Amino acid sequence: MALGAQGAAASLILAGCSTVAPRSPDDPSKLVDDATATLSNFTRDPDLGWFRDNLPSAQGLLIVPSFVRAGFIFGGSGGNAVLLVRDSAAGSWSYPAFYTVAGGSVGLQAGAELAEVILMIRSEKGRDALLSNSLKLGADASVSAGPVGAGAQVATTDILAFSRSKGLYGGVSLDGSVVATRDAWNSAYYGREVRPVDIIVSRNVSNPQANELRNLAARRT
User: Fold this and answer.
1) Cα gap 108→133, rounded to integer Å
2) Most buried by CB count within 10 Å: which residue of 12, 64, 173, 194?
3) SS3 100
4) DSSP bridge pairs for 141
5) Where do the DSSP E strands lie in 40-184?
6) Does residue 79 have a pLDDT over 90?
7) Which of 174, 59, 175, 55 is nearest to 117 (CA)?
8) CA-to-CA distance for 144 and 149, rounded, in angstroms?
């Protein structure tokens, strides 16, 4: 029964984030701008030195500028995201593909939290899992909290989740969350129908509006 409630909560978040077409062509562009600001915040945060130092070796980044978690007893969480993948040979980063992240939880909880979240993809398995239409974190790819502070231990996992948040919750747990593509946003941003594999693997499309984000991921000013 608990699993059913969790699934229902996740479904509600997904319904709100991923099935509605963007209200205007500017929506994906705003998300890219917000993702750029979030990545800048992470690279400047003194508590996220490990993230900053290991960014050059990351396989990819899934950036969620506004991850909302709220509820009472039955909780839900979610946010829109962009995915960039690094070409290990060339050292360059792809243009962004658009996704949504949604999860649900059941238990004694109250309040709300707004967080900036970045998933650092550390393995080929984690990168390849994101090429599917949807995946479940913890099942299709392992996920652990990213190390914070000096001397932190690093888990052996496909994906490391980092967050910067303020609210009544102590942190953001993404285990069990569903990551799904936002096909309408991908089409709106690139002007034609494209899949994530076209954007981040074949690299058949581009949009210069995302160059600041790509340069920041490559740590170029």
Assistant:
1) 32
2) 64
3) strand
4) 137
5) 60-72, 74-85, 97-106, 112-121, 134-136, 143-145, 159-167, 178-181
6) no
7) 174
8) 16
Residue pair 179/139 in contact (Cβ under 8 Å)? The answer is no
For tokens 């969790």, the residue is 6
Contact 197, 94 (CB under 8 A): no
- Residue 93 CB partners (closer than 8 Å, separation 6+): 84, 85, 86, 87, 214, 217, 218
Question: What's the total number of domains in the chain?
Answer: 1
Angle at 201 between CA 198 and CA 202, to 5 degrees: 55
Name the burial class of residue 112, with classes exposed (0-12), middle (13-18) and buried (19+) by CB atoms within 10 angstroms of its CB: middle
Residue in this structure with the two tokens 């109250």, named with its chain if needed = 110
Q: Which domain holds residue 106?
A: 2-217
CA separation for the pair 154, 8 (Å, rounded): 33
Report pTM: 0.80
Nearest to 27 by CA among 94, 100, 78: 100
Model pLDDT for residues 166-212, shown as the tens digit of each residue: 544 345 667 778 889 999 999 999 999 999 999 999 999 999 999 99
Task: Name the residue among 78, 149, 156, 88 with its Cα closest to residue 117.
Answer: 78
DSSP one-letter code for 21: P
Q: Which residues pair with 121 in a beta bridge?
A: 60, 159
- Tokens describing residue 205: 């499309």
